[in-house]
């Protein structure tokens, strides 16, 4: 199955157990071994491409960048009068 994470990005999940861990070598679920449907694989690839085209590389990297910028803010920065 394909669903959207809170950021709006498509996520591929196992039809059987709902987990999102797939072995890319065998296209099978790590948890229960259910093979990933080829139709789902193609749909997921298309969904990812559409999502990346919409948000662009900048927003795709912003998820990791947000944490870094928050960590770099000095704790005593609020020294305005
Ligand atoms: Zn599974």
Major sheet: size, sense and barrel closure? 2 strands, antiparallel
Name the quaternary structure: single chain
The chain-level structural class is alpha+beta
Radius of gyration: 18 Å
Descriptive overview:
With 81 residues, the chain is of the alpha+beta class. The protein has one helix and four strands; from the N terminus they run ββββα. It has one helix spanning 38-72; strands spanning 2-4, 10-12, 22-23, 28-29. A two-stranded antiparallel sheet has the order 1-2. A two-stranded antiparallel ribbon has the order 3-4. The chain is elongated and about 60 Å long. The model is unreliable at 65-70 (pLDDT under 50).
Task: List descriptors.
81 residues; alpha+beta; two-stranded antiparallel ribbon; 12% strand; binds zinc ion
Write a compact overview of the structure shown.
The chain is an alpha+beta fold and 81 residues long.
Outline the fold blueprint.
Layout: E1 2-4, E2 10-12, E3 22-23, E4 28-29, H1 38-72
Antiparallel strand pairs: 1-2, 3-4
């Amino acid at each position: 199955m394909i669903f959207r994470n809170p950021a709006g990005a498509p996520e591929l999940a196992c039809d059987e157990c709902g987990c999102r861990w797939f072995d890319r070598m065998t296209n099978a679920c790590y948890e229960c071994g259910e093979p990933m449907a080829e139709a789902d694989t193609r749909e997921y690839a298309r969904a990812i491409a559409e999502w990346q085209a919409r948000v662009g590389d900048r927003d795709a990297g912003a998820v990791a960048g947000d944490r870094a910028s928050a960590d770099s803010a000095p704790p005593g920065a609020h020294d305005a009068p």
